[in-house]
Amino acid sequence: MAETKREIERKYESDDSGLPDLTGVAGVAAVIDKGVAELDATYYDTADERLAKDAITLRRRTGGGDAGWHLKFPVAPGVRDEIREPLSTALPRSIAGLVRSRVRGTDLLPVVRLRSARDVRELTDADGRVLAEVSVDAVRAERLTGTGGQAQWTEIEVELADGVDVAVLDKIEKRLRKAGVRPSTSPSKLARALAETAAGRAEEQAHAEEAEGAETIKAGKKAKAKAKAKAEAGVRAGVKAGAGGGRKAGKRMDPAGGPLTSGDHVLAYLREQRDTIVGLDPAVRRDLPDSVHRMRVATRRTRSAFKSYGKLLDRAVTDPIGAELKWLAGELGVDRDQEVLTERLTDALGGLPRSLVAGPVRTRLRTWAHARHGGSRRRLIAVLDGRRYLALLDALDALIAEPPLLERAAGKPKKVISKAVRKDVGKLAVLVDQALEQPPGQERDVALHEARKKAKRARYAAEAAAPALGDPASELVKSMKSVQSLLGDHQDSVMTREALRELSRQAHTAGESSFTYGVLYGREERRAADVERELPGVWEPLRAGVDL
To answer: pTM for the full model?
Structure first.
């Protein structure tokens, strides 16, 4: 069964002089020599290195105390989640699933082999607790594709022990810096191996050294990097300056030197959502908190952008993709809706006095939630493993690569995008008015649910517009979020009452009291009524204040 470990480590350059004396590190009582381990790891990726591009590493390693298959996902700089499976000949299915959104139907190939002699030290405190593991790794890298380049280097790696304050790493680094050791310029061994064994790299370096000398090369690289950083900073500054709204937004420049069009802004938003869907796939499979909800939101944002900006993107292309996104959101919603219902019912039950809890209500709620969650989880994983889902990801990639832009996409953002957002707000206004005209009951509930969906669309349209329109669009996002939250609370109450009716029927059939479910039902009715009374006060100022 897969094991997950949070890996917090830092890497440093080494000049082969070994490990500096670390006995002076604050809090370290002893440095224990653990000997030298011989590690042999083969790293896998697609031919076009899709995993490496997302800073994901997949390897099969022998030697050391953790031989097996290792899959690492970046969490933050110097922090990765490592999923481990026991050593086997074939890639374990559990790990294959976690990279499927990136790999799709492409074969995974051995791309690099790293053989390391790891000289390990453990740093312990006065109580003998391990604080960190420090190793000096003598690495030999061999490219297994293309021309089969080779490289070798020595590095120092410091990994924090589980449950230890990260401040320990800062103290160790301070000592290393005093000894002249500097942080590595490569985020991982694999990244360095790929760079240093790339086809033609050795020949290019030799030629450059002959022409200009090693020192000139270094100076040129530094100057180039500095110029590039300065250019990128200028682009970012221009974007920041234009983000304040008004007509300046239409004058922002893209890195290629041309003005950012309406189409550029919408495509940037779509690219962000595509990346979010793909990136959250492993988290959903691992059942990490909030991952299903965030992935579902990304599908909705993409679909909403297709509709809101239908004058910029060819609907003949986006509508079929939108239909598939709706399907995926529905599949994701089975799990998410269950999470929301369970949390709401649990909180409501916890707020009742003991005198109002009759029968095994908590036990029945847990059993009901577990049964529904387990079934939806199995179904969701099957969806993510299915051809339909992978085809949808391919379709999103194709759309981003060759966007079906219409003539209006070349227009100025201030004019084109603001018009699309105002149109969505206008449609929302009609739905809210119609809902409030209905008497309390099922018809009003349905109408308010439709208004909620339209509020989401208007909010997402404003989100996509914010980089182009600045503060007015950002303020509209906040306002729409308030309306959406209010309408969402109303819909949650509707769904909770349906769940309470189901639970009450189950309790009655089992010969249990249904009294508590009735009490909770009544409270949910009052919550919905409170929302309906509050809505006009939130909505009217918003409608009157929209100015893009």
So the answer is: 0.82
